[in-house]
Amino acid sequence: MDTLSSKGTDYLQRARGLGPAIDAAAEEIDRSRNLPASLFAALREHGLFRLVQPVDYSGAELDPPSLIQVIEEIASHDASTAWCVGQTNICALTAAYLEPSVVKDIFGPDTGILAWGPGPGEAKVVPGGYRVSGSVQFASGSRLATWLGCHVPVIEPNGTKRLGIDGKPLSATMFFRKAEAEVTDTWFTMGLRGTGSDSYTVKDLFVPEAYTMKRDGSAKLRVTGELYAFTPSTLYAGSFAGIALGIARTVMTAFVTEAAGAIPRGGSRSRADNHVM
Question: In this structure, which CATH number among 2.40.37.10, 1.10.357.10, 2.40.110.10, 1.10.10.10 belongs to the domain 113-216?
Answer without folding.
Answer: 2.40.110.10
